[in-house]
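dude i think i finally got it to work??
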Amino acid sequence: MKLAILDDYENVALKLADWNSLGPEIEIDVYHDHLDAGDELVDRLCPYDILVIMRERTPFPRRLIEQLPSLKLLVTTGARNLAIDLPACREQGIVVCATGSSKSAAAELAWALILSTLRRIPQQDRTTREGCWGDGIGSALFGKVLGVLGLGKLGTQVTRVGLAFGMEVVAWSQNLTPERASEAGAFRVEKDELFAKSDIVTIHVVLSDRTRGVIGAHEIGLMKPTAYIINTSRGYQNEQIPKARGRAAQMLRQAEGYERERVAMAEGDVARVLALAKEYRKAPSITKERLYLETMTSVLPRFRKVIVDEDASIINLNQLFSPGAGGDKKK
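look at this
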């Protein structure tokens, strides 16, 4: 069998699990670059029986799946991957399964970005290493307003930390009620008020037709000149944000995985930081570790037992997964 690990831009896949324990019958290839959809991607993936992928980085739409006749198993991080066409996989007899993922990494990353942005940690570190001392002053969190766009599990975790710092927390999402916001320690406000009032807006919503483009030029125009947007959610919630010009100038700092950090300085007399950690192109290392460890120790041993029967056109998920298997099955 041939196995490929995709989008290992950090070159950590082979270090985080003992892949040699799978034995010589599984040939493993690791790809550190990223290919967009097209003939080149099909040619690369066509020989493989098993693909280990990062969530929502390389999409697997029907048109790609139908061109991969050898594919039998698709392993992804987390319990949700909207970039995989599950009905197409089912029709092709491809098992799709998910490993575990961190329940707190995104909230921790949000606070790492908030603190490093307000305290200018990257700039201070850079100037110190260059032999200088001091590069401007940072800002305190106490008394500032934190706007949480999406008060689910991650948004609630972020809210608790904001409260511990002495911040006022306001929140908005389409279905959020004042009672639910109050339970989390936040105040429910309308979206326009959240953007107008907040010193920091942090985004924690699932990408869907309802949330796509939820932040646009109108919302940006409501913000204080000194406010920041921190996005550890999916990038396309912000597809309406214009390029920074004039008084609406922004500094776009994108932490996009394989593209690394990319900084574009904007013109004008107002600078905002939009820290984008796009989920479809990044994953905290703890999530990657679980992906590779659980793939190697739990998923593949069970999968090999199933595919011994070459006549089986549809692999029985009940055979693949049993209690304690370490992965979630997708139907």
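Residues 105-281 form a domain with the Rossmann fold fold (CATH 3.40.50.720).
im so relieved honestly
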